[in-house]
Amino acid sequence: MLRKTSLAVLVGLSFSSLATAEEGFRQHDAHVHGQVEFNVAQDGHDLLIEITAPGADVVGFEHAPENAEQEQRLQKSIALLQQADQIVTLNAKAKCQIEKVDVAHTLAGDEHHHDHHDADEHEHEHHDGDKHDHGKHHDDHDHDHDHDHDHDSHGAFTVQYQYHCDNLAELSTLDTQWFSHFAATQSITANVLTDKKQSATQLSAENARISLK
């Protein structure tokens, strides 16, 4: 089975060989409100979709929740992102089964994971992270530190969906419903690396289909 870390490295190495202009664009605009990145990589029968999005696109802010309304918005967004079929649609003929979902964010300045499939690996981190975040605004622990996070860091989300597909040859495209759920996003850069294709294309609300071949 593919490990997400090796796939992430694979995608990074492969796309570093694309045109200099495209690479420069990605590095310069690594965190721009309204711009989201999808990385789609295939290895044998395994498919990984990795999404990187500014916090502002997902929840409307890029810091730890400061009130009950923001906390509710965060939890609702995490719950939505954990439902892969609400974000991407794969051809049923490809017989793809979701094997792993990981939703991580850096709204509090450090990374917090919400992982349904590797509970033993992430459960302790998830619960400790929640307690740490909620307490941060109620003690007088480093107000300046929190202030720095709000202004010097840009909270973002990273989402990973890992599938195993019995008939991957039937998967020529995939559609995303991202724009329907997150209206603040203006464009998506879709980087594709399969045994048939290596490309980087721009998606919009009017054209939200990713070609895999």
From TrEMBL:
Keywords: Signal. The keyword Signal applies. It comes from the Bacteria. The keyword Signal applies. Residues 1-21 form the signal peptide. Residues 110-153 are annotated as: Disordered. This is Zinc-binding protein. It comes from Vibrio cidicii.
